[in-house]
């Protein structure tokens, strides 16, 4: 597994915008998280394997009974929904709506780089309503990222949005994002 960390502000945002906002942080779940190495009352930088365990455990709580891939997509969508509830998220998406999905997605590399020390994103325009994003790596949870991207398109008010992905060698994943003009 890759070396690196998920930054404290990302973990803190996840706890606030997903776990607390959705009322998932029961005493039982808090104990489960502590056993994984996550103290929800004092978020800190997390090693990648701990972050992945946090996402998977949260997916089971947020979407019980759903297949893990679908539940992880739900978590990705919920993370972005929570982000837009905050002052910075509201302001950012107000501006991004003005520039439109194309320009917003082309800036995606910068946005993801601030979350951790591991993820690298390159964007390539395929056409006026289609962008290809290569995430290197996504650590076996591409549907979490797909959820983030799908929800971004909803928040950007993109019509008929689609996000398809295929995994590439060496852990990279290629996402093709499209919408109606």
Give a written overview of the molecule.
With 181 residues, the protein is of the alpha+beta class. The chain has two domains: 5-69, no CATH class; 87-180, H-NOX domain (Alpha-Beta Complex), CATH 3.90.1520. The chain has helices spanning 8-20, 27-36, 48-62, 68-85, 87-106, 108-113, 142-155, and strands at residues 5-6, 46-47, 120-127, 130-136, 159-167, 173-180. A four-stranded antiparallel β-sheet has the order 3-4-6-5. Strands 1-2 form a two-stranded antiparallel sheet. Helix 2 runs antiparallel to helix 3 (48-62) and helix 4 runs parallel beside helix 7 (142-155). The model has no long low-confidence stretch (mean pLDDT 91).
């Amino acid at each position: 597994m890759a070396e690196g960390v998920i930054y404290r502000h990302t973990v803190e945002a996840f706890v606030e915008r997903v776990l607390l906002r959705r009322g998932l942080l029961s005493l039982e779940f808090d104990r489960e998280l502590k056993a994984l190495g996550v103290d929800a009352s004092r978020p800190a930088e997390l090693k990648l394997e701990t972050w992945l365990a946090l996402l998977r455990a949260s997916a089971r709580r947020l979407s019980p009974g759903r297949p893990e891939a679908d539940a992880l997509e739900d978590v990705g969508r919920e993370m972005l929904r929570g982000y837009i509830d905050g002052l910075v998220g509201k302001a950012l998406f107000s501006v991004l709506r003005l520039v439109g999905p194309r320009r917003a997605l082309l800036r995606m590399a910068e946005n993801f780089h601030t979350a951790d020390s591991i993820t690298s994103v390159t964007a390539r325009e395929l056409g006026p309503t289609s962008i290809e994003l290569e995430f290197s790596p996504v650590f076996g949870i591409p549907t979490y990222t797909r959820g983030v991207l799908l929800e971004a398109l909803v928040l950007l008010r993109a019509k008929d949005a689609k996000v398809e992905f295929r995994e590439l060698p060496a852990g990279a994943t290629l996402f093709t994002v499209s919408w109606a003009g």
